[in-house]
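User: Fold this, then the next.

Assistant: Folding the first:
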Amino acid sequence: FIKANEKILEFDKYNDEQLSNKVGIVHQYLNQSNEIEILSNNEMSIEMKNFLNLISELVQLKNFNKYCGDLDTKTDQHGTYSYFATYQNHQIMFNVAPMIPSDKNDLEFIGRKSLIANALICIVFQEKSGLSFQPDFFLG
């Protein structure tokens, strides 16, 4: 038990020292119950946009010169816009799944999934409260 506490303290200290973080965000609509359905969303509701505007600001990715959270800032490969915030000297890039273009041949949305699943934090914006979500959707 003591070792677990030590590990948690180490992790917290590491996070406090990190000045940049990426946060993955997916949008779950009513009647979506699996990873593919959730990752297939290409649009965001006005409620999700309002949420993102509350916690961050919309930024153009091309030539963006702050922390980019692994999003492409040269060729628009990962979209033209994303959301970004600065909080107490910490730069936070939100990798928003519906804003990341997907290849029509990528039926498993591997490009989107890799950018979302590699984030330390993932927010699931649910269109309606009480929707079922299984975190293991985004493993591997």
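Now the next one, as you asked:
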Amino acid sequence: MMSRFSVWGNSLLQKLLSSKNVSTVPSFVSLPRDTLIEEETLPYYKPEQYYAVNIGDVYNARYQIAGKLGYGAYSTNWLCQDLQVLKVSTMIPEFPTATERELKIYEHLSQVDSIHPDLKTDNLMLTLEDDTMLADFAKAEAKDPSPQKQVDRSRTIYRSRRFLRPLKGNSYGLPILCDFGEARIGKTQESGPFVQPHIYRAPEIIFEMPWGSAVDIWNVACLVTKTIAALFPWSCIRRLRLTRMAALIGPPPSDFVNRSETTDQCFDSNGAWIAHKDTAIPSISLESIEKRLSGQEKESFIQFLKSMLKWLPEERKTAAQLLEDPWLL
């Protein structure tokens, strides 16, 4: 698909990121070549999908790599001097459309009807109120370089370095959505190649129905249950995920079942579960698994979730409606 890195930076870092401080670094821990680290541990890892980045590299005579922030299925993220994002892509013949699609999405962001069917915590960034975190990161990397291993002459793989938490009295800023490689333009998309991570997939995606921006609303509910409520009732196993959906939000209505030829593998015409007789619908509910809240706050929170977790996408609240939900006010 492509390899990329995000570029952050700050004027406070210029001295720290000079060639003297970054390119000439103290000794580092060299890892054995047969030890899989970071992106190498992913099940579908292909080296050619990752741009070979090295700490100390300078891009466009302006952006100097200070350290590795993390990695994903097709990319790595790095801290650099300037506060902006730079994408470095390697076009893979079998995956040309994702790069082209993402570039179009960035051009389209100022307009309406953009869909981001890959909403998950990995695709959310937090702005910083305390930018000394960046300087501390660069200092730590310059003083104690991250462990690394040289795969060959052109490729070195580094371990990521974690940010320290903001100083007392400061906090993270607002979340910002990023990574638009799977985003789409338009109100409705035909069924086809699956979008969304397995565990976050909306019902219409699972059953290969046409879909639209309502899949984002389903993802918001999944993110809320994971990040705010510290619970995540879904499962990576398809049949378990479906039985938990039925338990938490009720059986699918016949209108939903009739929209796809694949639903009859799991539900009858009335929405009753018929697949995997050894896999029963569990006796759980949103009310029973949410244990951190109580009283009116819990009731409002559960209603907030239920307004997004609907089998029929047109019954889910829109983003504008969610902003007016009592739980957020």
